[in-house]
Design brief:
The structure is a homodimer. By secondary structure, chain A is of the alpha/beta class. The first copy, chain A, contains nine helices and nine strands. In chain A, the strands form two sheets. A seven-stranded mixed beta sheet of chain A has the order 5-6-4-3-7-8-9, with helices on both faces. A two-stranded antiparallel ribbon of chain A has the order 1-2. In chain A, helix 1 (9-27) packs antiparallel against helix 4 (68-79). At the A-B interface, helix 1, helix 5, strand 8 and helix 9 of A face helix 1, helix 5, strand 8 and helix 9 of B. The first copy, chain A, binds a DNA duplex through residues 8, 10-11, 34-36, 45-48, 50-51, 53-54, 58, 60-66.
DNA sequence: ATTATATTGTTCAACCATTCACAATTATTA
DNA sequence: TAATAATTGTGAATGGTTGAACAATATAAT
């Protein structure tokens, strides 16, 4: 599955959508799905789905559709979910807590095996089966557990410091909810999740409604 | 500020980024900023920033830059934040709780004035200054408070039902964290926030690293 | 065996977004 | 006042993504 061409972010971001819906189809006992039907379910054009998938190979069968189980497996391998990445979360406020219990992460193969905070009211608590550890010991836990991905849900004021600590401990990718640009070495992949963009888009839309 | 041309989503999504950073600059007592410097802070090219802004007008001064306060005001009006939208959150689990206390929402002018859940252990609690109400009374509260935007942080299994209830009560926009496609009338704007896309992107990146 | 139907993979065209280059404008300095 | 430096706004060029059309292929029906 070595593709030469560069794949766009837009394609990569749609793959988990396909995957999650395929899992639902699988649960429902559906073996075969056409790009047409899948597109209807997801609100994506069938052409888009076919084009996205052919970036990585020809997984469908002409005149038939896609075998659900087979396509699931293909997407798992494309995204790299078979690795069962280990994840650590720094900042066990409500957001961190929510993510530690977020079922969809598990369904995608991510394992949360480290939770970190500075607040001693939280340290020692069992959150979703994992004990919260002092953030001062984060380095040790990351190394011992082999955690590769860090999630930052701390206040913005300490996010950079936490990121530095994660990078030093050998983390390879960071998902940050802090509303600021993190400074990290080039080889670290940072994805910023910005919870206020959604509301802003809604505000813009409601303010400048398409004329009716 | 009536622009004829259709503005792309990408532009709209960058505006709150500019705005938040401009607020920080303002706090720091900085009156004037160039697209060059702003771009450095945000990791966006100066050309991009200038082009985005000129979709709505000529807010800068050639040879000088942008007046921070003035530009803030302009962006507020473009996004429509001066309205101080009222927001209701359905599903006060940890995620809902986190959002109810999310400072950035307030800073953008959103007011959370309704919190709804079915769990009687949560109903009646004060979360960020608002009392959690039974979801059965959501319609009344939405109408009485004049809530225009709903946030759905319930389990996926009830998200559609909650959305229907919100639409019936007169909600105009919905921010949904449920990992499924909501069925709503055309005039309702739905923005889906998908928390698992970030992790998936990181997994893809780490799996298919740019050759080094 | 042939025809009809369904559906993918792929080419080409249309559209959209970003980057580049530069004219226009302002402030500053000599 | 003239020259210089800084910086915006914009038109053209580039690059990328989506959409439409269709050939290729598989199944089902006759």
């Amino acid at each position: 599955m070595k593709q030469k061409k560069v794949i766009s972010d837009a394609v990569i971001e749609r793959l988990p959508l396909y995957y999650r819906d395929l899992l639902l189809l699988q649960d429902a006992g559906i073996d075969i799905i056409s790009s047409e039907k899948l597109g209807e379910r997801l609100g994506i054009t069938p052409e888009q789905i076919r084009k996205d998938l052919t970036c990585f190979g020809a997984f469908g069968k002409k005149g038939v559709g896609y075998y659900v189980g087979e396509l699931c497996q293909q997407i798992v391998e494309i995204i790299g979910l078979q690795q069962h990445w280990k994840v650590g979360i720094a900042g066990i406020g409500h957001l961190g807590w929510a993510l530690a219990n977020y079922k969809t992460f598990g369904r995608l193969g991510f394992r949360t095996t480290g939770l970190f905070d500075v607040d001693h009211r939280i340290i020692g608590q069992n959150v979703g089966g994992v004990i919260v550890t002092p953030i001062s010991e984060m380095d040790n836990v990351i190394r011992k557990e082999g955690i590769q991905i860090g999630i930052i849900t701390t206040p913005a004021s300490v996010a950079q410091q936490v990121a530095d600590q994660m990078v030093n401990a050998g983390i390879k990718g960071i998902l940050s909810f802090a509303p600021l640009r993190l400074n990290v070495p080039d080889h670290i992949f940072v994805f910023r999740e910005d919870l206020s963009i959604g509301l802003s888009r809604i505000s813009y839309y409601l303010t400048n409604k398409p004329e009716e």
